[in-house]
Specification:
- The protein has 502 residues and is mainly alpha-helical.
- The protein is 75% helix and 0% strand.
- α7 packs antiparallel against α8, α20 crosses α21 and α21 packs across α22.
- The two termini are 96 Å apart.
Length: 502
Amino acid sequence: MANFHRNNVGNLVLGHHHASKSASVAGHFRLWNSHSAASLRRLIFDAVSCGASSRYTERSNSDSEKHHHHHQQKQHHQQQQRKANPNVRSEKLSDLLSIAEVEADAETQKKEEKLDELKRLVKELHREEEDSTKKREAATKVRLLAKEGLEVRGTLAMLGAIPPLVAMLDASQDDVESLVASLYALLNLGIGNDANKAAIVKVGSVEKMLKLIESPDGLDSSVSEAIVANFLGLSALDSNKPIIGSSAAVSFLVRTLQSLDNKSSPQAKQDALRALYNLSIFPANVAFILETGLVVFLVNSIGDMEVTERTLAILSNLVSIREGRKAISAVPDAIPILVDVLNWTDSLECQEKASYILMLMAHKSYGDKQAMIEAGIASSLLELSLLGTTLAQKRASRILEILRVDKGKQVSGSYGLGAAVSAPICGSSSACAKPDGGGKECFEEEEDMMSEEKKAVKQLVQQSLQNNMRKIVKRANLPQDIVPSDHFKSLTSSSTSKSLPF
């Protein structure tokens, strides 16, 4: 294409000769005439561009060859350097390995020093000296070191730190500081380590702690709080629950709980409650807990928001057996207090626990059902079944179902349930309906036969449903004078089968 353009340019240049030239020249002149000005400019531009492209390509090829030659020279130079210094890379690797070895040696030395320190502490604990100062100092150091982590706790236990610390509970009965140091050292050794918890109980720590509790000289408050904390930690292990629960530890925890206002700290109160909760998980311990009269204190403590949730948790464990339900029912106003908790919208956990306790009591005891109805539980349950947590809603619905079935069995004749639930008081409604109007007299007779208790239940259910509708209307921000629908009116009719539609 470039040659073609150059030939055309040559033809155009030759076209400037006179007409008297040869025929070839005349032909060139005719070619000049055959191109317009625009075509001429186009041909010149193409010719120049092709020539420039060719020159640019030649220069690019030349630069590429120079760059390639330079790269080959550089590689050759590097190869010569590596041949001249073959140990450069190996020296760098050796330096890295040396640094790693130094760090590993430093870490190993640090661990060895730590182990030596722990051995010295355990050796101090095992010394048989009349002066307990060194033992107390060693126990204090163990207490601090045991906070560092599980590894340190396990190492101290393997070195034999637990037996001498437990032995100090006997030898240091008159030394409060030594008792506190050893008790808290044992407590820290058991944190997060079930093997240590089991070892502490196995060497007789519970018996020695109870011996301190029964001391005729009384017990210092700091020692008492340390023992409570130990019972809390040790009772977390399932294998320790029956050992601690069958001892006098339960009575001690209850006494500590009941006398906290004057002698113990709020932390000790929480620790005692948590320890009792751990012990109540084991069913065999429930009987020992009931013997202490703890239930009365727990029920009366409901309302103190610092302890209510933990109190309800313990009651949830106690209510699982018959004796526990009887003990709760025997407390004056226990049912109204638990029903009131269902309205605590700002404490969802308490609502769930209270609904669980009431559900079990309603399922097992007819007398408790009556007390619940008299306490106005229906409206609280209806509200909870709509606005509570998923768990609370299920439990509330279950209680409503229990109460509905029970009331249906009692007053089915009066409420028109017929023989589907139980036998009517005065036969079926069809039997009472007489052509001469005797049916009216029969229903009046049924009304007279209905006990005052049943009438009160019927009236209470209607009132509770109406109160619940007002609460729902208020929560929905609807006008307070809203007129209930016909469907709601039908729910509050005399039929018990519709009084609790859940």
